[in-house]
Design a protein that fits this description.
Number of strands: 15
Order of helices and strands: EHEHEHEHEHHEEEHEHEHHEEHEEEH
CATH class of the largest domain: Alpha Beta
Number of helices: 12
CATH topology of the largest domain: Rossmann fold
Number of domains: 3
Strand order of the largest sheet: 2-1-3-4-5
Largest sheet: 5 strands, parallel
CATH architecture of the largest domain: 3-Layer(aba) Sandwich
Shape: elongated
Strand content: 15-25%
Structural class: alpha/beta
Radius of gyration: 30 Å
CATH superfamily of the largest domain: Response regulator
Helix content: 40-55%
Distance between the termini: 62 Å
Amino acid sequence: MNQKRPTILLVDNDEAIISSVREHLSSYADCRGATSYEEAISTLEGEAGIALVITDIRLPGRDGFDLLLWLREHRPKVKVVMTTAYGSPAVRSLAKQQGAVMYLEKPFEPKKLMDTVQMILERTGFSVAIQDMEFTDLLQFLSFAGRAVKVQVTNNIGEEGEIGLQGDTVLWVRTSAQIGEEAFFEIVRWKGGGFEMKPLSKEEKGNKEDEISLSYLLLEGARRQDEDLLSKTKEETTKKEKEEEPEPPKERASRVRAITVLLEELEREIPDVIAAAVVSIDEGVPLVATTNDPAFDVDIVAAYYAEVIKTNEKALEALHKGPMLEEVLVTTDAFSLVVKPLPDTRFYVGLVMAQKGNVGMARTVMKRYEKRFLETVPAD
């Protein structure tokens, strides 16, 4: 059975270019043509199977960037190639650097055009779908189109920023905490959120608080990201090296004895304890564990509930409520388990109690012992 041919929409105000591209791609795909934004929207609304749009940035009336935004909202899975006759080394550098949005310069080389289309539509793992766009890519397309706009940005925790843009010139940038270059770098570091664009009024076009080149800001932002990544990598390597330094045997033995004494004291104060342990949250391994039931595998319980702690921490972070988790309580028809993370460490104290045990009393006693445990376990 023959593989279904993809359908491509070609958008350009020059019908000769549409005809030429259609001819180049005719052996591979079915091509539709549109010479304006309005005609392109009509075609997209009337034909659901379009897989790729190749559109010029500059169109009469509403331009290729307006079409890009419409696709982002209404057809987010459609892949897009932007075309321009106004390319430059700076534009090529930025497009290559960002990578998420592809564009081609006119006039087209037939083989390059075919290779690009096949790569986008066929290669596993390659995508330029609109929902994958970075905010900086959108700013680039605004710049390519020569748009004069005010971009209002809101991140996922409600912080707001504003950028005045006219072509490649950034007229102003503001957030609640910064203005100018630093405000721009703050905005592009935001994760999640949305944006709204409005045309600049005549007064705003003349409001040139501190003109900066968008190309410079994007390149400088990329340089800073590289530096941040390098710095973070060095910090993580240093931290890992420190964590991997073995504790001297005598010190470890002394620490284990002290924790064992504390756990034994704790068990004597709390009736119906089946097992007790101080466990590394990250490794899921007991530093010390005791049990009066040989059939009870403390190591398995320790590893499992270390994962419970980490899962709860991630949930609290996602809800912007943490990351400090004070306690986890799990009850079954056979036993109860009380897990108490120790502040400023990556360890927890866990008690497994018979079902008849007094959990309320256990929590109170564990709270009273917290300071003594903190004096014995390794700090972060």
